[in-house]
Q: What sequence folds into this?
């Protein structure tokens, strides 16, 4: 069994993405890691080179600064890396995600177990999402806690949406199984100044002028003060520890029972129903789960 890793990252240093730990977290699992580095204005490519692992293959690609259609851009650059993979399985990671080493054995075992089962088009990984800091973990609805991050090498499987997940080329959700792998998602836990740059970059990429203005007008603390979080008591991936040890910012939430905000109201109601009855309502799943 051959395993390929793949990702893309542009201006990762300027935007504060932990893309070097992300790439390093795949190396123990993969036989090769394809890193698409679109034309950047910082030293992103040099940082990837400096990892110094022969498994890494850098793909240089272009970038049109005038293009303002975020989802197609994300899909296209993800697919450019996927198309270079040579493995039986292809493991995707974004620049703000890190695979926890404790789950590597389970992830590899699931790939070995399902290799000959053609009905399984991909595998799910579980997520721990951070918000505001590296020590505050999200538990609200509106976040995805599982997503397809392992797919078969198949020209009929491509990135979907803003490369949040994958589907068939005719738009069908993939048939998947759970893998036991866990990704730590740090994209909403960056230092507030870096987070502002990251969010502003995304809104610019998507051409969202009003949302860009809202990002620029947020207070210095940047993060919303009412996200539903709990203290994180686990262990971070080893490749992230130096970054986390240097972090000095914290996050505190008012964490109201209901946020009385149209963006969150129904998520809060669904969470209350789950807490009271165990029923999960209204959660979109970008996959079809095989038992």
A:
């Amino acid at each position: 069994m051959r395993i390929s890793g793949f990702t893309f990252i542009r201006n990762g240093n300027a935007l504060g993405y932990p893309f070097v730990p992300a790439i390093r977290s795949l190396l123990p699992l993969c036989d090769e890691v394809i890193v698409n580095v679109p034309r950047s204005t910082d030293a992103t490519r040099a940082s990837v080179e400096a990892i110094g692992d022969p498994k890494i293959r850098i793909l240089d690609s272009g970038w049109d600064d005038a293009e303002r259609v975020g989802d197609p851009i994300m899909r296209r650059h993800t697919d450019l890396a996927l198309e270079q993979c040579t493995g039986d399985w292809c493991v995707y990671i974004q620049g703000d995600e890190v695979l926890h080493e404790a789950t590597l054995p389970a992830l590899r075992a699931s790939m070995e177990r399902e290799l000959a089962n053609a009905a399984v088009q991909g595998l799910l990984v579980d997520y721990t999402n951070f918000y505001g800091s590296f020590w505050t973990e999200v538990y609200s609805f509106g976040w995805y806690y599982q997503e397809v991050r392992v797919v078969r090498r198949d020209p009929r499987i491509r990135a979907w949406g803003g490369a949040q997940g994958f589907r068939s080329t005719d738009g069908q959700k993939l048939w998947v199984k759970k893998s036991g792998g866990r990704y730590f998602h740090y994209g909403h836990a960056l230092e507030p100044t870096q987070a502002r740059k990251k969010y502003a970059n995304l809104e610019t990429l998507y051409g969202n002028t009003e949302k860009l203005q809202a990002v620029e007008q947020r207070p210095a603390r940047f993060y919303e003060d009412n996200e539903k979080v709990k203290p994180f008591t686990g262990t971070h991936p080893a490749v992230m520890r130096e970054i986390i040890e240097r972090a000095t910012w914290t996050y505190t939430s008012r964490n109201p029972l209901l946020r009385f905000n149209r963006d969150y109201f129904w998520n809060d109601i669904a969470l209350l129903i789950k807490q009271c009855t165990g029923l999960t309502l209204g959660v979109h799943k970008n996959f079809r789960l095989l038992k």
Remarks:
- The domain at 3-185 is CATH 3.90.550.10 (Spore Coat Polysaccharide Biosynthesis Protein SpsA; Chain A).
- The longest strand covers residues 175-185.
